[in-house]
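Per reviewer request, we include the raw input and output of the structure prediction for the construct analysed in the revised manuscript.
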Amino acid sequence: MVKSLLSELTHRSYSKTKNLDGTRTPQLRIGVEAKLPYHSFLSDWGDKYQSIMRTALNGLQNGQSEDDIEKTFQRKFDIDWAWADSVASDASGTFDQLKTARDLRIKALNDDLTAGWKSVAATIELMEQQLANPSRKNMKGFARRLMGLESKVSRLERKQVEKQELELAKRLHICFGSSKLFNAQYHLEENGYSSHAQWRVDWEKKRGGNFYSVGKGSVSGNNPVAKIFYINNDIFNVIFTVPRFLREKYGDTVSLQFEVSGQRKHNLLYALESGKPVTVQCFRREHKNDPPGQPVCRERFPFRQRVDQWYIHLTTYVQDVPTISNINNGCIGIDLNAETIDVIYIKRDGNPERCRNAISFAIPTGTTGQKEAKLRDIVCEIVKLAEIYQCPIACENLDFSTKKNQLRHSGSKEYNRMLSAFIYDKFRSFLVVRAEKYGILILFKSPFMTSVIGMVKYMQKYALNSGSSAAMVIARRAMGFREYIPQKWLKTLTTFFRPEDWKDVGFGGGWRRISAWLKKFFVRRPRMFQLDTVLQFLLDSLVAESQKKTHKKRSSGR
């Protein structure tokens, strides 16, 4: 069963325990992160945990079940049942991710190959025509294009081999650590290492430093082996149950304090008091520590000059925020474009708010962190606007995965840049999470013909740009309005419409036909502000085209 886009992005779920009336309580999944003071137990157990988890992953690939791993690993590695359960759950999640990644890679290769061979066939056909009619224009750069074609065919053949190997492979491969650091062992001096042993220290460190414990609400501390307790003010305490093989060194438990403040503190206190499970993940993060006045060449020494800091990440559940948005208050529509994010508020009657113009946000640029920060600011403004109007937000329900896989063979650089950017998936993810925290409903609607409908019906009428008019169509679609083809267009071009084009208010093919005409006769978007002129131009062009076809038929009949 295919999940909807909203179900993949949402953090909303329902409690496992039923209420007295048989219903389940809606809840939101949240994350709380804080710094931990260093303790050698964290490093020792983090490194060993990852080694055990990799062994469990191999066991799953060899046909073992999670239950088998839980039972055998307790005795094999001398650890408690709760730690073995966490290892099995962690390995199972990684195994599922590997299978999904393989399926997605096979799909990406298949899409790439399909589009690539189609492009090769078209190129060969064009070059054959040029050879049949050699001229200075046709033969200019012919050798270079031929070499490019040969290179493209070689690349597609390699992709075909990779796809076949993935489909036949029985084991799933993953590099724990990082492929960059793994490859550094073959170029030690270039990466700042004097020996393989020195590289090995960093390699083992990179592969460890992370452990995980599944939460359980019915036990003290809301976790079997990483119990969380509130002390006072903003201070919390985590008590780790030490695995049996480390108890001679650290005793039965290790207690560490961490600080959580603000709203995160209230969320964590609610989860602890309500008996919500708190899943704990502890991990080591490296930070740069360059000596003042002594810059370090990162290209030459990418893996040196780092300081370790341990963090604890708590995943739990809080009360679901009541929905305050109502479709009767209108709707906010969002249209994603190659250069802008266009937003517009539509009243309940289907018309835009006159006192507030449409808003256009430029697509963020810069580093990945800068893009995400700017994108979060944009999402905050949109959700704040929805909170003011107490209305839902409508967004496009688009799947760019197939198009992204075919980017190499597309001719539009601007469209390729839009599809390849991470920002569209991130935008929707940030929007859903932010809106749920404020009780705003998100509606994902089909983007079918939104740009064409917006330009034909609303761009000139409300003096909107093409993006804002498309956002208006998305909002109206979420509110249940139907977009009929204007009567003036139907009457003027009635000869060139088919009976089936009028079905379902134009979605039987009428809007597609209008879109095809606009593309065929190169009608640019700014011209759509003069609809009468465009309509007359289309009529003249279609009449002229039909006369040419009639003339050709008569000539061939003679």
